[in-house]
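Help needed: design a sequence for this.
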């Protein structure tokens, strides 16, 4: 029956269920809590370029949310991102620069840059 309904009727059918199934909470975000970025920091320190690329992709996805970015600034992940600027792989350099740009677009990120004198290092 559901496959014959129009899109609007399909949505209203599922909204009007008596006992709709609750959406499961995402446990991936809260797996390590604030320690998540310390674990990602360890991944950036490794010599494995594949792991480093995966960690940078994960960081860039997380930095779309400001609360996660603020948690990351409490760790030493910014120094690791700046260290990735001199890496031989262009993909790693690109992902690190995108993450640093996302940090610089927030007020707390700019404060961290100024307090730690990282502006010259970044430039």
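Sure. Designed sequence:
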């Amino acid at each position: 029956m559901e496959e014959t309904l129009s899109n609007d009727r399909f949505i209203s059918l599922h909204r009007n269920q008596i006992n709709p199934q609750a959406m499961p909470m995402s446990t991936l975000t809260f797996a390590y809590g604030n320690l998540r970025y310390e674990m990602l920091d360890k991944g950036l320190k490794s010599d494995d370029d594949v792991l480093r690329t995966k960690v940078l992709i994960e960081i860039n996805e997380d930095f779309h949310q400001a609360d996660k970015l603020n948690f990351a600034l409490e760790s030493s992940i910014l120094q690791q991102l700046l260290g990735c600027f001199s890496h031989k792989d262009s993909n790693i350099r690109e992902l690190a620069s995108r993450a640093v740009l996302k940090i610089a677009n927030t007020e707390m990120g700019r404060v961290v840059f100024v307090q730690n004198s990282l502006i010259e290092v970044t430039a």
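The chain has one domain: 27-122.
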